[in-house]
User: What shape does this take?
Amino acid sequence: GTPTIPVLEIFGPTVQGEGMVIGQKTMFVRTAGCDYRCLWCDSAFTWDGSAKDLIIKMTPTEIRDELRRIGDNRFSHVTLSGGNPALLPQLEGLVSLLRGEGITIAVETQGSRWQDWLAEIHQVTLSPKPPSSGMATDWPVLDDIVAKLSARPAPFAVSLKVVVFDEADLSYTRQVHARYPGVAMFLQVGNPDVRRMDIGHHAADLLHRYEGLIDRVMSLSDLNDVRVLPQLHALVWGNRRGV
Amino acid sequence: GTPTIPVLEIFGPTVQGEGMVIGQKTMFVRTAGCDYRCLWCDSAFTWDGSAKDLIIKMTPTEIRDELRRIGDNRFSHVTLSGGNPALLPQLEGLVSLLRGEGITIAVETQGSRWQDWLAEIHQVTLSPKPPSSGMATDWPVLDDIVAKLSARPAPFAVSLKVVVFDEADLSYTRQVHARYPGVAMFLQVGNPDVRRMDIGHHAADLLHRYEGLIDRVMSLSDLNDVRVLPQLHALVWGNRRGV
Ligand code: SF4
Ligand code: SF4
Assistant: This one.
């Protein structure tokens, strides 16, 4: 039969809250499973077993039908998120089905695994993880993925995005930017509390941290051609899921 | 002698708070003068006479020197803002001087006037004004400007950005997007109080309005391929000037 995809959430349309297409109207498909265990993961339920019973194995057609059931004709963009969607070779079927319907597709992955279908994704965000995550970057693998994705013609685009919590993360970010100077570079302020539900104070704290990150980046001449962004969904909805 | 440019502010580096390169590290050069009188203009001091004595007539070289004095080597991107910078044919000298130094340039203009130097700008944001502004759009002029800027090859880019306060503005936005379907479209939530200095409440109010605009756009199938954004500088710094 058709290979199935482990899905945890399908929701939208909403706005993409971060990165290279921040603000874009999009649907989200969140897959289960990750090869990393970031200390501050805001989607730990995709890999820590806590939502194991909510995982549904779906065929590409079933996912497309569910997108249409909840999004109807009110979307033309889909974001594949995780976990790490690049663990799943069987996403190829979904990517080609959606592309055949004229849908633009974005993916976020840490850049630890290649899949051939990544070449067909319009907007790939590679988000290598800084020291505060507790993870180590496999540079040769990332080099290869960046090279493959950068070689594609427009409108196919790739960007790097690093979450920054502290000075060690900022050093890591500078290292990433120096290694891939031609790739669009996004710095994202870290969310220090992925459980806090007091939206007002959460937003104020995140904006304060965002201002601090701006100050640091503005002082560094090796980070001139970069973009510094908060997570808009965290500002608007706090840590609520499915918005 | 060299034609001079009426300048009101030169500041940075800071982040671009809105539109197609939101988050980009950039310097700002704000020129004086506007052919519009938007009711909610957040830069009315550029045209209402209140800052008349602060206008300095500067040559391109003087502007470049001032950018280097305050930004040193900590920038590679400059944003020309107003007022309406497209009133000034003499910006051509500045544009070519900055481009010669490898600087990427962005401009925001309402699209009411053409200047040949606009063709040399890497990121042009055209921001036609909706009904709440009290201004009327000259569609044939805008058609011509959109056509000229859209015809340029990458990395030259153009986008449309409309500020939305109410339902009439949203209707206008839909009209703009339908007229120029191939041009990247940004909706920006309006800032209802350009004088309020209580940043905490200002940010909370803006985020609430942003959520409301998201809800409306998500419901409309003719606004699928759009991006909806707040003004990040208004969230972080409120209505403070020069940041
Ligand atoms: S790579 Fe992403 S999903 Fe995986 S653990 Fe890290 S933050 Fe979580
Ligand atoms: S076009 Fe821009 S600068 Fe001119 S009045 Fe309107 S908002 Fe103000």
Notes: Chain A has a mean pLDDT of 95. Residues 14 and 243 of chain A are 6 Å apart (CA to CA). The helical segments of chain A are 60-71, 91-100, 139-150, 167-179, 199-218, 232-237. Chain A touches chain B at residues 12-15, 21-25, 72-77, 104, 154, 186, 200, 203-204, 207, 210-211, 214, 217-221, 223-230, 232, 235-237 (CB under 8 Å).
